[in-house]
Amino acid sequence: MPELTWQKSTYSAQGANCVYVAATPTGTVHLRESDDPDVILTTTRSPLLSLIRTLKEDSQRR
């Protein structure tokens, strides 16, 4: 796997509970949490955007 450049999500709370994102030129997106950085979730842009859109819609309904 190529070297990934991790970026902290702007939606992460201050402190130790942060989500980090890294994208590759091929469209793969990697996600990890600061409390367990060795566990990496890998997906592509489309499913991730769908998840984020759904979570935003759900939070607006509350």
Structural class: alpha+beta
Number of helices: 1
- Low-confidence runs of at least 5 consecutive residues: none
How many β strands by DSSP? 4
Strand content: 35-45%
- Give the ordered list of helices and strands: EEEEH
Main sheet summary: 4 strands, antiparallel
- What is the terminal separation in angstroms? 40 Å
Q: How are strands sequenced across the largest beta sheet?
A: 1-2-3-4
- In helices, the fraction of residues equals 25-40%
* Overall body shape: flat
Number of spatially distinct domains: 1
Topology of this protein?
Elements: E1 7-8, E2 19-23, E3 28-33, E4 36-44, H1 45-61
Antiparallel strand pairs: 1-2, 2-3, 3-4
Structural overview:
There is one protein chain. The chain is of the alpha+beta class and 62 residues long. It has one domain. It contains one helix and four strands. The chain has one helix at residues 45-61, and strands at residues 7-8, 19-23, 28-33, 36-44. The chain is flat and about 40 Å long. The termini are far apart.
Structural descriptors:
four-stranded antiparallel sheet; 4 strands; 27% helix
Nutshell version of this structure?
The chain has 62 residues and is an alpha+beta fold. The protein has one helix at residues 45-61; strands at residues 7-8, 19-23, 28-33, 36-44.
